[in-house]
């Protein structure tokens, strides 16, 4: 299996492809079925945000290794409109689209590391990591 | 892929596949709301046994769907949420307030039988 997988995100079909690729890579790394569901859900959330708010972008899936432990790195990147108030976007229930506003804060809760960098008119990059137990 | 919807007596059964896209989900929502009228169904079972992810969009759409079906005069029950999917939903903060759920198809149909006979009993 390759160490890095890239999925171009342009439509809802790509959201499904990204979470399937992520699940496959995570399964290969030995994650539990519970963790696989968490990882797939988080990928689904950030990939859908790309489709909804930026129209297009990509999901990059990578393997991390530290002290003999393996992890999965998920990068969601777009050159869309960016987020003016990132702190607000990270709050439960905040949505500019009538959504539940749980995608970003929920993903942060289920992953071990979560980082978001966004600049208005430049785009958004979310980087999340989870370690296999 | 369009979610197959089966008519079984007074009920409709929608069997969701694992690679469910947002468009498929919205299509199923519209199909069910329409078919409930066409077949004069009393209940709808949405079987998500095959689904490995139930994210915020799916949760919101299922909720909307359950409320719309109820407004159409029928009952909806979601069956087959897998244990790991259930835990993932809870950790994400997702819930389905006011939406009936049951373990599997059999339990879901039993629940519909109870609910629809109650409705009829209370009618008269
Ligand atoms: N990639 C992105 N580009 C631009 N804005 C974004 C992006 N991702 C998120 N946002 C902004 O952050 C807000 C919060 O995102 P979040 O995913 O938490 O909730 P949501 O998408 O509104 O609802 P849902 O619960 O269905 O995911 C969004 O409403 C949107 O305004
Ligand atoms: Mg979102």
Short description:
Chain A is an alpha+beta fold. Helices cover 38% and strands 32% of the residues of chain A.
Can you give a write-up of this model?
Chain A is of the alpha+beta class and 133 residues long. Chain A has one domain: Heat Shock Protein 90 (2-Layer Sandwich), CATH 3.30.565. Helices cover 38% and strands 32% of the residues of chain A. Chain A is built from 4 helices and 5 strands, in the order βααββααββ. Chain A has helices at residues 12-28, 33-54, 86-89, 103-110; strands at 4-9, 57-66, 69-78, 113-119, 123-131. Chain A has a 5-stranded antiparallel beta sheet, covered by helices on one side. In chain A, a hairpin with a 3-residue loop joins β4 and β5 (123-131). In chain A, α1 packs antiparallel against α2 (33-54) and α2 packs antiparallel against α4 (103-110). The radius of gyration of chain A is 14 Å and the shape is globular. Chain A starts with a strand and ends with a strand. The model of chain A has no long low-confidence stretch (mean pLDDT 96). Chain B is α/β, with parallel strands linked by helices. Chain B has a single domain, classed as 2-Layer Sandwich (Transcription Regulator spoIIAA), CATH 3.30.750. Chain B has 4 helices and 5 strands. Chain B is globular. The N and C termini of chain B lie far apart (42 Å). The model of chain B has no long low-confidence stretch (mean pLDDT 94). The A-B interface holds A 12-13, 15-16, 19-20, 23, 33-34, 36-38, 40-41, 44-45, 48, 92, 99-100, 102-103, 105-107, 109-110 and B 19-23, 52-57, 59-60, 82, 84-85, 87-89, 91-94. Adenosine-5'-triphosphate binds at residues 45, 49-50, 53-54, 78, 80-83, 89, 94-97, 99-105, 124 of chain A.
